[in-house]
Amino acid sequence: MPQSGSMRLLLAGFGNVGRTLAGILAERDAYPGLADLDAAVVGITTGSHGALADSRGIDLASALVWFREHRRFTPGRPDFATLDTAGAVAGLDYDVLVELSPLSVAGRGEPAITHVRGALERGRHVVSANKGPLAWAYRELTALAEERGCALLYEATVMDGAPVFSLARHGLRGNTIERIEGVLNSTTNVMLGEMERGASPAEAVAAAQRAGVAEADPAADIEGWDAAAKVAVLANALMGAELTPDQVERESVAAVTVTRLAAAGSRGCRIKMVCEAFRDGGTVRGRVRAREVRRDDPLALVEGTGSLIRFVTDILGTFTVAEERPDLATTAYGVIADLFAVRLSRA
Amino acid sequence: MPQSGSMRLLLAGFGNVGRTLAGILAERDAYPGLADLDAAVVGITTGSHGALADSRGIDLASALVWFREHRRFTPGRPDFATLDTAGAVAGLDYDVLVELSPLSVAGRGEPAITHVRGALERGRHVVSANKGPLAWAYRELTALAEERGCALLYEATVMDGAPVFSLARHGLRGNTIERIEGVLNSTTNVMLGEMERGASPAEAVAAAQRAGVAEADPAADIEGWDAAAKVAVLANALMGAELTPDQVERESVAAVTVTRLAAAGSRGCRIKMVCEAFRDGGTVRGRVRAREVRRDDPLALVEGTGSLIRFVTDILGTFTVAEERPDLATTAYGVIADLFAVRLSRA
Question: Which residues belong to CATH 3.40.50.720 in chain A?
């Protein structure tokens, strides 16, 4: 049951990250640092797996058990609701929309953009783990959030939930970021590792799928769309750019052959799919490319599902952040970090 | 001339970092991100090189030229003042004491502790680049700051000015930090690199001195006191410990021989002086030790004056931050980051 004054959350999406987040919130007592995160989930919507709503706060532990057993929410639960995300965004009473639906490249960020816009127009805060709205509609949505006095936060969109945007907001303040580069797509990084060990490209894709990082249709990763969307979010949020993913130059991991990997190896290098945002005259350009990096370059050290970002700034110099072996809790944590920031901005 | 509403700074110390900070503030227009950092220096004190004071704001460009030419402040300047730091802390009118004096291991953090305490007792904010007060008097000074409603910030004490403490305050919120490990002492890291390339320990010390990182008396670095002080600050600030540097186990870099380095190399490893803070039962322990790390461990990748910290947390997992080739501006930036945080907390 939510305490009076609890932050009321609407979870739009109940996939891996949504369920992991719900699990952490349900087991909050196991995490000493979460003692003062006072949040209650009042709605959960999904694409096609039913919805729950309870203004007194959904019992997350039982919702998780139900979903595991039935693979969907059904009218057997007293808190079952006939609601889609659009209806919940417009009709439920919540403080924060937590947008957890998957990235849609074909939809150019929709329908998540519409959900985020709808929440902001109602004066509700938004925490998005979906990078689509920030990659395709950054200016519009940040302007709307500012106009309505709402928070729009998105720590989980890049590098899972590791601090990237909060780092830049607080820890790099006063610096101008000249350049950002990083290894940020797990599927292609797992693939390149497998190919270095002798796998064919097809075997490498299968390995990434077995590792649980590649989608059943891994095209968005392989063709660089996921990485391009991350570049757009980074460039827009941290370098004042106005880039959409289609404006980011993309190279497919399919351009990297076993021969090319071996040749790089013979030069003491590795090939990594590197995301780049950099200033070029008065503008900011974005690029995703297969880059040969020396083995002692931190970019070369990123293994498997790890990720890394290097910031080049005018005062601080070069600063790098890296994450090793993230799991679903890492991404869910990005949402939690944003909820702390929302809470602090309300206090 | 300070604008009305400028934050008035007292710089206690005018060594390399103080002069670099003054240079950045004097050339503020060259850094777009500093446009809204409205600060004026109303006092500069030194150990034995004279002092300046001007309530209208010291002309930093001319002070820097003067100091370069005369190696001290002298009565020839109209803003010359007969003031030591204690007198300035007690008597000048300032908003923020910027403590820039060097670490004194023999003095167990004094006289900087007294200066910090004096400023806080007067209700002034403190930004310290000197780790002594935080290593030897953390609880007392943070409690005093809280009681007086003042900021006590110290981003420049560990990893130069790279975001470590602001990262933990904002980006890792809600996590419990289980373990911190890092390579944080430049002198010993430069020495180990030289010794790997065949230098004797004495040659290695000389190389670190030529690189400008080792003091004329490098004992505090070699015996691990600088590193132990950093461990104490990290453990106290981020893990709730109450450690002083003398309670941190120390191993001297002198324990690392050329033979031991070569043996590690033959196993695909390097030896690094690693700072560690970790939970052990209900307490937090600190340790500085020569540790053999695999070449593909990020700790092994830290070259020369670079540094790195790995945080192991309960929710986010493992998160690493690293800095390459810092210069004096990097450390000065830590002070600037803290000034932004002070300014924000006043707003």
Answer: 7-161+328-346
Q: What phi and psi values does residue A255 have, to the nearest 5 degrees?
A: -75, -10
Chain B residues whose CB is inside 8 A of the A37 CB are 174
- pLDDT tens for residues A151-200? 999 999 999 999 999 999 889 999 999 999 999 999 999 999 999 999 99
Three-state DSSP class for residue A164? coil
Cis peptide before B111 (omega within 30 of 0): yes
Which residue among B175, B321, B341 sits closest to A33, beta carbon to beta carbon? B175
The tens digit of pLDDT for each residue in B103-153 reads: 899 999 999 999 999 999 999 999 999 999 999 999 999 999 999 999 999
CB contact under 8 A, B33 and A326: no
Every domain range in chain A assigned CATH 3.30.360.10? 169-323
Terminal Cα-to-Cα distance of chain B (whole angstroms): 22
Show residues of chain A in contact with B321, CB under 8 Å: 319-322
CATH number for the region A7-161+328-346 comes to 3.40.50.720
Q: What DSSP letter does each residue of A202-223 carry, written as one string?
A: HHHHHHHHHTT-S-SSTHHHHT
* Distance in angstroms (rounded) separating the CA atoms of residues B203 and B195: 8
Does the CB of A64 have a partner CB in chain B at under 8 Å? no
Pick from A166, A256, A320: nearest CA to B325: A320
Q: Taking the alpha carbons of A11, A16, A20, A22 in that order, is the dihedral positive or negative?
A: positive
* B131 in catalytic set: no
First to last CA, chain A: 21
Q: Give the separation between CA A122 and CA B46, rounded to whole angstroms.
A: 57
* A278 interfacial to chain B (CB closer than 8 Å): no
Classify domain B7-162+328-346 at the CATH topology level.
Rossmann fold (3.40.50)
Query: Are the beta carbons of B325 and A317 separated by less than 8 Å?
Result: yes
Q: Is B166 on the interface with A (CB under 8 A)?
A: yes
For an interface test with A, give the residue of B170, B183, B327, B342 to mutate (most A CBs within 10 A): B170
Tokens representing B118?
Answer: 């004096």
**Assigned superfamily of A169-323:** Dihydrodipicolinate Reductase; domain 2 (3.30.360.10)
| Residue ranges matching CATH 3.40.50.720 in chain B | 7-162+328-346
DSSP secondary-structure letter at B299? G
| Interatomic CA distance for residues B120 and B146, integer angstroms | 9
